[in-house]
């Protein structure tokens, strides 16, 4: 890793923040930590007796050198991100933007700031988890950022008491973002890795799809390339049909989790909701 890579990443991060209309800054004072927790409360709406994190703990993270940043827009904090040092490099634990910042590429600006921050400290890998049933997050993480799935984690957090996660098992997909790798560099340059079902190849099979009534249907896994569908609006499905949402959770765990446990590589995610798995490659995790 060299200084030029960190300088380039910083320039990309500054441009991304400018385009998103935000300022991203490290937080240090206790008042800032309280404000950050209020942002998290607006986004996740946790049970009052079960906060996602406390201001005091955030201050410890910041003081000990972890990644603790706020996102300001229009003179107020509208987003937050926490990452802490881990054996793999930096683990990005939580990131969110409130409703006022949605659809403005603020998430991309945060991740580019995080990338630059890590490279400045000679950290080459960032990991994080996300719900593999949420299509927009899968596309953002795998296609737009170029992160690579490394592990399927069943019910990772157990029961959670916030409105976003309440009533659902907390399966997560762990991803690794190799900051100087080809995918991350291309993403930073505005060349995300776009994959499509049409380009999947001749020996392609569908391992999980939706039936006409919207329920999950398990199919074949014996091709060179395996496609795994997820519903377009899983969050809405949790509210309108919890039993169907659970069926998708368990089917995805069985199929995607099973393929990954066997060592097969998730190579991408399509805009229309398919995980693409290459059974000819073994995961490097």
What layout of secondary structure does this protein have?
Elements: H1 3-20, E1 23-26, H2 30-44, H3 55-63, E2 67-73, E3 76-86, E4 89-97, H4 106-120, E5 125-130, H5 135-144, E6 148-153, E7 172-178, H6 182-188, E8 204-210, E9 216-218, E10 225-229, H7 234-240, H8 242-261, E11 264-269, E12 274-282
Parallel strand pairs: 4-5, 8-10
Antiparallel strand pairs: 1-2, 2-3, 3-4, 5-7, 6-7, 8-9, 10-12, 11-12
Helix pairs in contact: 1-4, 2-3, 7-8
Architecture overview:
There is one protein chain. By secondary structure, the chain is α+β, with helices and mostly antiparallel strands. It is 35% helix and 28% strand. The protein contains 8 helices and 12 strands. The protein has helices at 3-20, 30-44, 55-63, 106-120, 135-144, 182-188, 234-240, 242-261, and strands at 23-26, 67-73, 76-86, 89-97, 125-130, 148-153, 172-178, 204-210, 216-218, 225-229, 264-269, 274-282. The strands form 2 sheets. The protein has a 7-stranded mixed sheet with strand order 1-2-3-4-5-7-6, sandwiched between helices. A hairpin with a 2-residue loop joins strand 2 (67-73) and strand 3. Helix 2 packs across helix 3 (55-63) and helix 7 (234-240) packs across helix 8. The longest helix is centred in the last third of the chain and has 20 residues, at 242-261. The chain is globular.
């Amino acid at each position: 890793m060299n200084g030029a890579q960190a300088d380039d990443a910083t320039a990309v991060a500054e441009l991304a923040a400018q385009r998103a209309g935000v300022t991203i800054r490290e937080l240090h004072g206790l008042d800032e930590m309280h404000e950050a927790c209020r942002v998290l409360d607006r986004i996740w709406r946790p049970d009052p007796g079960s906060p996602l994190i406390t201001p005091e703990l955030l201050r410890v993270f910041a003081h000990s050198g972890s990644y603790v940043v706020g996102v300001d827009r229009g003179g107020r904090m509208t987003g937050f991100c926490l990452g802490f040092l881990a054996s793999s490099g930096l683990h990005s634990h939580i990131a969110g933007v409130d409703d006022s910042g949605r659809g403005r590429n603020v998430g991309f600006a945060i991740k580019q700031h995080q990338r630059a921050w890590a490279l400045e400290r000679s950290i080459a890998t960032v990991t994080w988890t996300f719900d593999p049933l949420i299509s927009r997050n899968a596309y953002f993480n795998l296609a737009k950022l170029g992160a690579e799935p490394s592990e399927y984690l069943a019910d990772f957090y157990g029961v959670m008491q916030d409105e976003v996660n309440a009533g659902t098992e907390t399966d997560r997909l762990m991803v690794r973002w190799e900051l100087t790798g080809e995918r991350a560099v291309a993403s930073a340059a505005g060349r995300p890795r776009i994959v499509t079902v049409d380009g999947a190849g001749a020996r392609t099979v569908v391992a999980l799809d939706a039936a006409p009534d919207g329920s999950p249907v398990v199919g074949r896994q014996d091709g060179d390339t395996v496609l795994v569908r997820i519903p377009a609006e899983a969050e809405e499905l949790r509210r309108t049909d919890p039993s169907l949402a659970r069926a998708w959770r368990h089917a995805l765990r069985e199929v995607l989790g099973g393929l990954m446990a066997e060592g097969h590589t998730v190579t991408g995610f399509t805009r229309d909701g398919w995980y693409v798995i290459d059974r000819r490659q073994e995961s490097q995790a």
